[in-house]
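Q: Could you predict the 3D structure of YqbQ/XkdQ domain-containing protein?
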Amino acid sequence: MSYQVIVGGKYDITSVLQEGSLSLSDAIDDIAMRFKATVSYVAGLPDMKPPTPIVLKGTPTNGSGMATLFDGIIWDVNDRYGGAHECSITAYERIKYMAESEDEYLFNAGMTASSIIRKIAGDWSIPLGSIADTKIKLAKQIFRGGKNLYSIMRDALIETVDKGGGMYIPRMAGGKLELVPIGNNSTVWLLETFESVDYTTTMEGMVTKVKVVGNSDNDKKLSPVLAVVTGDTAKYGTIQKVHSDSQIKNASQAKTAGEKLLSGLTATFSYSGIDINTIRAGDKVKFDGRDLIVASVEHALGEPGMMNMEIMPAIGVKKKYYAK
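A: Sure. Here are the predicted structure tokens for YqbQ/XkdQ domain-containing protein:
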């Protein structure tokens, strides 16, 4: 097996892993990668209860030597008895705690998503790697509990896109939290060897008309309309979005903001093919002559292994994962 699993920092359990049971999953809307494996119990096997550390190492596709592909903790354990004793493990990167923990926050107007993420990470002693500058200044936000830390970060990233900024994804790399632009990977894989591909188009999330409104302090009056931008309503009908941004000062800015929000059909590819074990959610890939973004990927690790992915154009990612 070209993969190695270490538990508790020192116990190599590779020899008792069931063939075909290893998988590694990643998604744009989930901050922590997930690792699954099934173990056949033998005498002397180390204790594997949550939150035991677990590391997956393997040879990167088209690479050499062993590299760390996953570093996290065991989160769930399912023991099965009936003849042989088996144990199914589900593990997540440690950043999973951000998706399970809540806190109260007040973010003043003018902060960026980058500064919000830095603030949260600093408060929770999360080591930081490269944090891209999202640039867009955001409105004042208050969180009084009831929303996990990752959702707070996601809200800031969604507002960034809503105000005309780029798409970014937070994820772990080398044990540190990073914030990277969607589709900014240096190695872009050309997908050629596939088993099956399903192609879907949908009007879900389409916007054919945008009404841009200003602010109103009068509860008895509607907000003033600054601009109305219309797309292909003749063909698709009217699907309207109402957009408000305190930084829009005139009709020209309102029109520009509205035009950016118009969107058409969403295309999605469900791809199944030979595994490329270094592909992550948010990466750009090439398929069928197109640049596409990986929305989610599950690697069924093996030799050669298989992977199942949902891939789509950047506009589809924007509508599905970064729309208010």
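Q: Anything worth pointing out?
A: The mean pLDDT is 94.
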